[in-house]
Amino acid sequence: MKLKSLLIASAMMLAPASVMAADLTIGFSQIGSESGWRAAETTVTKQEAEKRGIDLKFADAQQKQENQIKAIRSFIAQDVDAILLAPVVATGWDEVLEEAKDAEIPVLLLDRTVDASEDLYLTAVTSDLVHEGEVAGKWLVEEMAGKPCNVVELQGTTGSSPAIDRKKGFEQGIAGHDNLKIIRSQTGDFTRSQGKVVMESFLKAEGGANICALYAHNDDMAVGAIQAIKEAGLKPGQDIKIVSIDSVPDIHLAMAAGEANATIELTPNMAGPALDALEAYLSSGTTPPKWIQTESRLYTLKDDNQAVYEAKKGLGY
Ligand code: GZL
């Protein structure tokens, strides 16, 4: 543990638990607000920091990696005690993470990973993104029960770890089931608007009758695609089956109406486990595992989706 962390640790060990985190100033470089899930993650992160009396410096990168790098450099200049980073893409972080390491400022990754040496971050709090894609694929295998099905795929942000891993997982999930064929796959950048635009292009290119299912890397793109499917005169959830990921309120509203079929839940609370790990590291030198995995669960039409919608709608999405 570096001198700076040692000094914080000794100060925190002398402080009563109630003020342990109160002295911390933490920088949070957030990707932006591209989806309902992202908005919820921001809300929950601010709540988790407030609960701990942490002074959170928030920076919205508007989906741009250069803005995240600028924010991290600003946090280093302010000599914050730690940095939370939700990395928009997986590559291009080595230099700025080295700068944070040289400044003895621990970096904790939220909801996405980076292609960089593990010694450049304290821990990554994410779901198993490959597993999420696999669950979606296996759901479709069961749903189609051997019947032929042409699948179109709305990928997340190009170069992001969820887009890479959810695509890989879905392909693993349908492997060996030749009745399922991915006929179109393109990024919708995790947004509703792009999800609608790209689904319109799929429908134009293929014709609705040739598309049996949509796999969207997040619910927001699926909600946008539902609009496109309706405008094409087709019934989403029936003419075209829809499976996506996040479990935001609006996908449960669509499922309650039979307009979507399945979603895999991603918790927006990545910050809670991250801040717990940070406090243990700073107060008693407990080094966390490099990966803290959050749980995922599948929701289908068998669930009470109206009740799930009601339960989730006030949670910052
Ligand atoms: C996945 C997360 C993704 C969400 C999207 O861990 O990074 O980013 O699934 C969000 O809704 O845009």
Automatic annotation (TrEMBL):
Signal is among the record's keywords: yes
Q: Name one Pfam family in it.
A: Peripla_BP_4
Key words of the record: Signal
From the UniProt annotation, give the residues forming the signal peptide. 1-21
Taking every annotated instance into account, which residue ranges of this chain make up the domain Periplasmic binding protein?
A: 26-271
Protein's cellular compartments: Cell envelope
**Is the keyword Nucleotide-binding assigned to this protein?**
no
Cited Gene3D superfamilies: 3.40.50.2300
- Read off the PANTHER family from this record: D-ALLOSE-BINDING PERIPLASMIC PROTEIN-RELATED, GALACTOFURANOSE-BINDING PROTEIN YTFQ
Q: Which NCBIfam families match?
A: YtfQ_transport
Which family does the record assign? Belongs to the bacterial solute-binding protein 2 family.
Q: Specify the protein name.
A: Galactofuranose ABC transporter, galactofuranose-binding protein YtfQ
